[in-house]
Amino acid sequence: METGKRLTTNAGITVGVVRKLLHRGARGRLGRILTKAYPVEVARLLSTLKGSERAQAFSILLDECEAAHVASVLSEMSPADSTAQVLALMEAEPAADVRELLEHEERTAGRIMTPNFFALDEEMTIAEAVSALQKRSEEYEMVFYLYVVDKRDHLVGVVSLRKLLTTHPSTQLKRIMVTDVISVNTGADQEGVARLVAEYNLLAIPVVDDEDKLVGIVTVDDVIDVLQEEAAEDLLALAGVTAEERVTTSAARSLRLRAPWLLLNLITTFFPAFVIAQFDWAISKYAVLAAIVTMPMGMGGNTATQTLTVMIRGLALNEVSSVRQIVLKQAIVGLGNGVINGVIGSCAVAVFFKSFYLGLVLACSMVINMLVAAFAGTLIPIALKKLKIDPAVASSVFVTTFTDVGGSLSFLGIASLLINRFPHT
Amino acid sequence: METGKRLTTNAGITVGVVRKLLHRGARGRLGRILTKAYPVEVARLLSTLKGSERAQAFSILLDECEAAHVASVLSEMSPADSTAQVLALMEAEPAADVRELLEHEERTAGRIMTPNFFALDEEMTIAEAVSALQKRSEEYEMVFYLYVVDKRDHLVGVVSLRKLLTTHPSTQLKRIMVTDVISVNTGADQEGVARLVAEYNLLAIPVVDDEDKLVGIVTVDDVIDVLQEEAAEDLLALAGVTAEERVTTSAARSLRLRAPWLLLNLITTFFPAFVIAQFDWAISKYAVLAAIVTMPMGMGGNTATQTLTVMIRGLALNEVSSVRQIVLKQAIVGLGNGVINGVIGSCAVAVFFKSFYLGLVLACSMVINMLVAAFAGTLIPIALKKLKIDPAVASSVFVTTFTDVGGSLSFLGIASLLINRFPHT
Predict the structure, then answer these.
(1) Interface contact B341-A262, CB threshold 8 A
(2) pLDDT at B317 (0 to 100)
(3) What CATH architecture does domain A251-421 belong to?
């Protein structure tokens, strides 16, 4: 966390200048430049440098800058600039910190917390607390709340910096601290932690171990990353994309990440193909059916995607309460859009192919399949969630299978009943 | 922003107790309960109460609680609990504040900022600043940075609360303040503001008007909301869903919100239908073609969705630098997945329909269409962005048209060349 200090001169951080200083071996001067720069700027600089230059700049950062600043820089770097490389370069205490964090499971409070927090003994007075703050505050990433612990490091209270300024210096911390502190366990899921911080508008949340000892804090800047990731994650999964794939991901890795979803979808494409193949006799008689069947299939798929997207978001945000009401609503929306699109699409098709019955079949099929889309789009994610399967990952494959089958079966089924009504080709 | 104070007893905030106090007219006691509770809890309580009870609780909140607390509660409420209702209930100063905010355009810094900030004159000493803070800090939503202004309210610097604690009391603010403050104009886009706060790990960012006068601050809790919204917005648009549609949106409103996208898609479904209709002679001869043509179309659509989703996210996060490199990479991924799925799908189809040539045509078409998907999925969003059209909103309609046409044209085109090689039906 930074107030607003920035590089005094922008020129100071250009890669050119940094390279020059590296070659001159001006470690001290470079260290001062890196200290003054924003963590995000240092991270950018490091990612621009190559090979040995980068390693050199890294080691200067580690030797010349405060641990808190180094931690901030690291948190700004992409996971690709791997922890291993950093660990290899780091020594003694900071490395121990990072290793400790890595002991916690991924996606938990323990993994995203910083062990650099400021905690004081409950017996201390305000005056003592202020003096401790004056001496040691520079070491810590963020001091906005002062966490208060007892003799055995158990978290017992919290005091805001503001309260510290407005209370008589001889008062003991335990007299003014708020004792009902919101805290989380190291094993708590990072999404839950992030939501708690966001909901209660906290700047940091203390993390305690199984014995209730204070072991770290999760700050709001880390929470922002988690919440952004989470908001995008479900919607990405719906499109068959994992959150880790970026435009910059290598071709080999993208291929590996996407292949399973495409292969799963390949299997599902057999279902409508199989349905259509059953109606080959009807299609042989009137080949235009093969052209028009793609319309209810496509429109059902689009409706399903809309419904599913709204549902996945609703489930993620815990907004789904009455299933019956939601299904009923989506059915109405599906019916409404089915009628609108069915009528318009049918008129165009009837005129173009000079067949009233072709238009009629399309209209019926469109309405049916958009209802199928509404039901599948709402019920499948709810069912998957009940079965403890992530609805965001699995829903779209199932739902589009339903709408592909629903569209082809309803259209060709009705068409085959009216096969003698179509123009002869 | 809250330190950690919470309702002393959870029973105090149950709807039952609140109702009892409302009926007894115990405004003072209820006021104290509302003051102690977290904003999010008060907001939830208010949303549970109905009609006159709600209005009463509102008026108690406004009369008995501090403006900052009221503002926090309001920010936790859904937009549905409309500003109008609140304005009607509010009087004098707080209402003036809200009206002032409403004067700014939607989605700007001016609209999301709070006008309750703590600013001090540059000539003040640390001692004077601390005493001002002690007297007035309760009025403000958040005091972590002290903004420093000159005689004409121009923002000239910033001092952290931490710095205040660690500097000699007789020092003037202007001697210790950081002068290079990151600030934004009231008209700045809220997304840009949010990204600035997130990138530089700020807790708040000062907002200045066109004359550089400090008029408000945007705090990190509001930034969290903007960033979550933003992360989801583009991906929702890609699925034809507007960010305002939730599971709880009324059927009529959902219908209106979704209809335009579906109608646009309806138009695009005519293109593949038209392509397929051109090959009615081939389909009449071998109707199985009608079944299998849906496979390259579907797989192209899935590949396009994946590619497009990654691209839209990359564009939003400004990660797209070298267009040529990205297109090349996506083409390789598309080619790879086309070959994998083409081979597997073709073998299954060749065996099932006892036709080597049918499998061969499918394999070629799948590879071609997954390349089409890769090119359309990367180039269309880039082109739309260059044309200043939001790629998230418009891309998917164009891209799927390309893959539907690409899939049907390549499959039926090649099939018609080999029409005499297929089994006779």
Answers:
(1) yes
(2) 79
(3) Orthogonal Bundle (1.10)
